[in-house]
Amino acid sequence: MKKRVVVIGAGASGMTAAIFAARAGAETTLLEHRDRPGKKLLSTGNGKCNLSNRRLDDRCYRSGDPGFPMEVIQGFPLKRTLDFFEGLGIVIRDRDGYLYPRSGQASSVAEVLRRGIRDSGVRMETNCHVRGVRTFGDAAAGHFAVLTDSGTFEGDAVILACGSKAAPATGSDGSGYDLAESLGHTIIKPLPALVQLRCRENFYRQIAGIRIEAEVSLWSGGERLADDQGELQLTDYGISGIPVFQVSRFAARALDEKKPVTARIDFFPGMPEKRVRDMLCERAARRPEGAMEEFFTGWLPDKLSRFFLKYAGIRGERPAASLSKREFRALERVIRAFETEIAAVNSFEHAQVCCGGVDVREVSPRTMESQKRRGLYLAGELLDVDGICGGYNLQFAWSSGAVAGMHAGV
Ligand SMILES: Cc1cc2nc3c(=O)[nH]c(=O)nc-3n(C[C@H](O)[C@H](O)[C@H](O)COP(=O)(O)OP(=O)(O)OC[C@H]3O[C@@H](n4cnc5c(N)ncnc54)[C@H](O)[C@@H]3O)c2cc1C
Predict the structure, then answer these.
(1) Alpha carbon distance 389, 227 (integer Å)
(2) How far apart are CA 151 and CA 31, in angstroms?
(3) 8, 10, 182, 389: which one has the fewest Cβ atoms less than 10 Å from its Cβ?
(4) Backbone angle region of 97, left / alpha / beta, with phi > 0 → left and psi within -120 to 50 → alpha
(5) What are the backbone dihedrals phi and psi of residue 157, each rounded to the nearest 5 degrees, phi first?
(6) Pairing of strands 376-378, 157-160
(7) What 3-state DSSP class applies to 400?
């Protein structure tokens, strides 16, 4: 008799897991509570789906066990991932190491996975919410009954691939955590990550809409938590953009622990201190009678330079030559180490992923099998693994899904 595998959740990891379980010979059923599989995929990479990255290493992931994500990926590495997608019909486009489907459409990735599911004979059930998983026998037995609103599905193995709580409109409502917990797993509190930061100060309306290259470092009680450089976006409530997303999970965790969090922004990233100081002096020397409101023209957006002057207490009509050394130093501090207090991270609705999830120390990175219950496998963002922006979260979803499917299916 064929082994029966039930996969819960038809997102990136669940669809991959189902294809590999079926290819391994198992009678595979994929349960999804939304009306279509792969909804989240459609919004990935701004609709273009950044499906992986040529630069993959430990530094791209955060997890309770720092070695876990890459160990999983080694079980289904980039080369095999690309072969898998090419086999499904995707032609890969490499944009400086960031990998996309050449179609430029995330929908094509979702579509070929749906086709892969059909072609490998997976039974797909949509509008099928899983509300419980019952186990029979002791923890070593490996026999399951998956309870849904439309009936019970029995399996010799179950793959939990329900995602996190991020972007719940796409289906990942956090119910996977309850299922994992009911099966004996520990959940590390999930918090929004790759998300915007809300700031305490009320001046953000004045500078909303500005996009500028900057370095953002995050601080708590004198400790530098994280930093990143890229295009910063100023919004009416705080800060956004890739460098903010990359550090946001550290803000979420620290704020959740009731620690104060400050972001320090350097608007001239990578420039030595002396170079910026010399440039300020040169500008002042070149046009000593020029009004300060024109001082940064061509160097910084006008809206931002007006704000900086106000913030440093310097009136725009003053000639550059009238500024004291102390005033220049104050201005320099504002543009190089602008401090803003973080009040909160935006909610799960706005987050691309979650930090936290099922404790990976309870899962084998070689097979994705639970160490709590034989025959139970876990994959994807449900686990306590979060990658930085750049295709890393999807790569973890493909790899963990494939590894889980291959092992559950035999
Ligand atoms: C806006 C946005 C852009 C992103 N862009 C990128 C990107 O370009 N590159 C990248 O690497 N990552 C990106 N990510 C992150 C990436 O999409 C996720 O990490 C990845 O999709 C996680 O896959 P998953 O299979 O673990 O979970 P999901 O894709 O969330 O799938 C989980 C599935 O399980 C279903 N489900 C949940 N609970 C139940 C239940 N009880 N019963 C039945 N079904 C259930 C859900 O409906 C869902 O279909 C982005 C995320 C967002 C929100």
Answers:
(1) 14
(2) 11
(3) 182
(4) left
(5) -145, 145
(6) parallel
(7) helix
Q: In what order do the strands lie in the sheet with 144-148?
A: 130-135, 144-148, 151-155
The tokens describing 31, both together, are 């349960």
Are 363 and 370 in contact by the 8 Å Cβ rule? The answer is yes
Whether ligand 1 lies within 6 angstroms of the CB of 8 is answered as yes
Q: For residues 20 and 406, give the distance between their C-alpha atoms in angstroms, rounded to a whole number.
A: 5
Residue among 133, 160, 138 at smallest CA distance from 148: 133
The residue whose CA has the least distance to atom 41 of ligand 1 is 130
Residue ID of nearest Cα to ligand 1 atom 13: 44
Q: Whose CA is nearest to atom 51 of ligand 1?
A: 352
212's enclosing H/E stretch is strand 211-220
Distance CA 312, CA 154 (A): 67
Going from the Cα of 383 to the center of ligand 1, the distance in angstroms, rounded, reads: 12
Does the CB atom of residue 190 touch ligand 1 within 6 A? no
> What pLDDT is attached to residue 137?
76
Ordered domains of the chain (ranges, CATH): 4-190+357-409 (3.50.50.60), 196-345 (no CATH)
3-state secondary structure of 75: helix
Nearest CA among 297, 280, 294 for reference residue 331: 280
- Check if 13 has its Cβ closer than 6 Å to any atom of ligand 1: yes
Q: Note the pLDDT tens digit of each residue in 341-362.
A: 999 999 999 999 999 999 999 9
pLDDT tens-digit series, residues 278-326: 999 999 999 999 999 999 999 999 999 999 999 999 999 999 999 999 9
pLDDT tens-digit readout, 195-219: 999 999 999 999 999 999 999 999 9
Say if ligand 1 is within 6 A of residue 352 CB. yes
Per DSSP, 359 falls in state: -
d(CA 357, CA 370): 14
* Dist. CA 140–CA 143, nearest whole Å: 9
In which residue are the tokens 């996009």 written?
211
Quote the tokens at residue 394.
Answer: 């999807």
Of all protein residues, whose CA lies closest to atom 45 belonging to ligand 1?
A: 9
